[in-house]
Each structure stands twice: as structure tokens, then as C-alpha cells.
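tool=predict chain=A
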Amino acid sequence: MSHKRVRMSNLTKAILWVVAITGTMLGQSQPTITVKELPPEAISSRTCTESISGFVGVVGKDKKERTKLTPKEIGEYVSKRLSEGYSITLYPQPNDRVFAIAQCEAAKH
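tool=predict ok
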């Protein structure tokens, strides 16, 4: 019985040694992350008056709306809505269309 106890003791020491070395190695590779909360910026007066939602689309020269947009066109839509005082949430759809909810933040203030 004492022979088994010695083996268990050596096995326990080996496991603890591996855990300690692993913990030390992992501890050194972890970057330090800090988060600083900032107060919200004031929303200047913009042109929006109410919130809107729907599929984002572009009306072409043929007067037809196209809802499969390029990344540039989506960026232009977001930039335009932000300048009007909206807060934008985009929901990409499986059919390559984008559904947008534009909250009018300017009207709240």
C-alpha cells in the first residue's frame, strides 16, 4: 500500500508541476486589456424627424429599385443616414439584401 501511495504522490507532483508551468506560460502571453467608458457625445441638430426601416435599395437610371448592393453603396447609405441624425442597424439577409432600421436620434433631443 505504501508503494501505491508513493506512486500517487509522484504522479500528483508531476501533474501539479505541469499545471504550474502551463499556467506560467499562459499568463505571460495574455495581453492587458483596459476599457474606459466615455460620456456620450451630444447629437447636433440634424434633418431626420422620425425613425424608418426597410430594405436598403438604390434606384437606377431605369427607375427600378435594386436591393442587391455593393459594399460601397451600403457605406454611402450609412454615411448619408448618419449625417441626417439616424442611428443605423443593418441586418444582412440570405438573399444578399440588407434590411435597415434607422432610429432618428436627432428628434429625441
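Residues 2-29 form the longest helix (28 residues). Residues 38 and 44 are 18 Å apart (CA to CA).
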